[in-house]
Amino acid sequence: MFNQYRIPRENLLNRAADVTEDGQYVSSFSDPSKILGAALENLSAVQHSSTVVDVSNNISCTNWPRPVKYHDLTKDKRQVEQWRLFGYVAAAVVFRIYIQSFAQVYLNIVEKSHMGENVDNLSEAVSEIHAMVSCSKPLLTWTTMEAAQQCREACGGHGYLKCANLGDIRSNHEPTVTYEGDNNVLQQQAGNWLLRQYSAARAGELLDCPLNTVTFLRHHNTVASLVFTANNTAQLKTTQFIMSTYKWLICYLLKQTYDKYEALLAKGLTKFQAKNKSQVYRWRNLTKAYSEYLALMFSLEAIEKKEETLKPVLYKLFTLYGLWSLDRHLVELYQGGYCVGEEPAKLLREAVMELCSDLKSEIVSVVDALAPTDFVLNSVLAKSDGRLYQNLQKALVGHPGTFERAHWWRQVVPSAKL
Amino acid sequence: MFNQYRIPRENLLNRAADVTEDGQYVSSFSDPSKILGAALENLSAVQHSSTVVDVSNNISCTNWPRPVKYHDLTKDKRQVEQWRLFGYVAAAVVFRIYIQSFAQVYLNIVEKSHMGENVDNLSEAVSEIHAMVSCSKPLLTWTTMEAAQQCREACGGHGYLKCANLGDIRSNHEPTVTYEGDNNVLQQQAGNWLLRQYSAARAGELLDCPLNTVTFLRHHNTVASLVFTANNTAQLKTTQFIMSTYKWLICYLLKQTYDKYEALLAKGLTKFQAKNKSQVYRWRNLTKAYSEYLALMFSLEAIEKKEETLKPVLYKLFTLYGLWSLDRHLVELYQGGYCVGEEPAKLLREAVMELCSDLKSEIVSVVDALAPTDFVLNSVLAKSDGRLYQNLQKALVGHPGTFERAHWWRQVVPSAKL
């Protein structure tokens, strides 16, 4: 549509670089350190993605009051609903703490850089942050999509109601998986960075991770030799089990990805072709595991600093999110020999169910803490007064025209009859 | 809202049963065989669910032309898109053949019964059909939901366009997972029937499955002793591997469910409580596997009778659907010892990727065969002329008001400026 459509050169956005009248690309910076500063502007991509992540998390938090209040989830007979919903509530809490911590780290670096202060390993930090955001945005936006769907289903027929506001939330959130970086493309970028770190670790070189998100790769051989040794659910419901299992998982998936990628290069494929062919299963699972690990790592540090009275419920939510997420990686845990036989999957799933049951008396308070006000929530199903059916009735009888005939009624009722 | 609202007794729908003036329940049939006929009316539930299944499948078929034509999926570099889409296309084909075959079986029984002819094991057949529909409706409606989402994502930003008609398809389809029987409730009903058959098989009693969907349970011990022995992908891409793996899977999941359920009963729980507590993971996976097996079993029989020229592509689609679905049961295949070590999951996933690649030259024809006409499809992204960008441009410039100012433009532009 812009074929042969002329845009004058003076319309260029040329603060950091320009094109001369004879078509040469030039940078307007002579000082290399300034170019680095300008490169930091790429972080605007990070900012956009971060905003999406934040919005996505807020939407996620907005979902929960409906189904959680809709069902009386404190009852045992609601086990299926507990299982389908509580993991997502835990995810919303862990993600919120993660985003707050991570935003602080990121904004500190941006502030220092803008003030002209020296930031150690700035370009390495920028790369690491880029990798972190590139896999966190897919994790948060896809999880929120799934959560919105589970919320609607858990509210049954009432979930369709316009005044439940679940459909609109879902539709409005949906584009986040595509814009500000399509999720699949972003995952590749995180995968590239991870593979660079792993290759360096294998070669005994230094890792470029000033934020320490993959420092454990230094000991990748030791980590890879870990195995599942628990024989009761109490041993699984620990931060230590969750974090070390994730480290094993990331090492295993990196090794799989690395081996496949190298094998394809050895076959004569280009790097681009090799990445494409090794992406499905390997890169997706790898960057998903890494992003979950990031959320767990940052939120764990933050929870440890919270006031004592908050810690018990936050640890429960942390543990539930960790085990509920590991459940989805069971194939790799078995495939790589970390798990063997019937017990590991059984124990892991029992631990998830136990945590759901442990949380049932606290979940309504958790959801109330996450939720915005009734006005923002804008849903007849989750008003803070808890009067579900009365509010439904009020919405119904209060809606203009509820008791009127449709204007086209004469078209469907032969006039002779009435 | 109907509190103290009186409805006269004469408004009762009382063809098969009634309530007398003094409140007694009476059946209006004296002949027991007639009561059975009336009970067949319960099949109206089956009919409703079947209709949902059929509509769901049609919607599923309607989705595909967009993303498949949107991408040039015949190219190797599109491996992620092939992987995310082709499995669902294969599912749509297998489901369509399954529904056609199954509807024929069902309608034959209904016809005979309505004509007053004798149907062997009528009440057993009714129970089996009820179980089949109760798990097939969740399978088809949930799969179509996932497919609609994948289609939208695969079309990127263009997928949001109103004129792409993907959002409306998704929203209109969404209620199917709840109405005519909530999917979770229906799965329990199928689970009940399956568990009854398994208990009978364990006790050496006769199975009540005139449609032969679980006849293999007679040999549940032999089936349970099967293990994964393939050492190349060719051995996996066979109908024999798929069907026997599903039989193992169903036996394993039944044994897990049975053991858990019995253990809970032994602890003193009621049947209702025990079912609730054994549902998550076990009943869901069990009825999902059974429904996939049904789709495969019925479609395989039908494909074997198709004309020779159609068979190669139909077998490829059948095999892709079978392996792609088994991929999602890998945890249980490992947990139960059917698979051990790194190779099985690796081979299975390689086989899926190979089948995607094998199908790339045929997939557009397959999608065209599934799809309704352009008018019904009603999407700018998938017109049969294949002129994607020209059609997008036409839709954009042809839309009333595209080149007009918004009526509220004065509110955002200070009048002094223009």
TrEMBL record, chains A, B:
Key words of the record: FAD, Fatty acid metabolism, Flavoprotein, Lipid metabolism, Membrane, Oxidoreductase, Transmembrane, Transmembrane helix
GO CC term (a single one): peroxisome
Gene Ontology biological process terms in this record? fatty acid beta-oxidation using acyl-CoA oxidase; lipid homeostasis
Cofactor requirement: FAD
Q: Which GO terms describe its molecular function?
A: FAD binding; fatty acid binding; pristanoyl-CoA oxidase activity
Could you tell me the superkingdom of the organism this chain comes from? Eukaryota
Residues crossing the lipid bilayer are: 85-107
Q: Which InterPro entries match?
A: ACOX_C_alpha1, Acyl-CoA_oxidase, Acyl-CoA_oxidase_C, AcylCo_DH-like_C
Entry's family note? Belongs to the acyl-CoA oxidase family.
Tell me what this protein is called: Peroxisomal acyl-coenzyme A oxidase 3
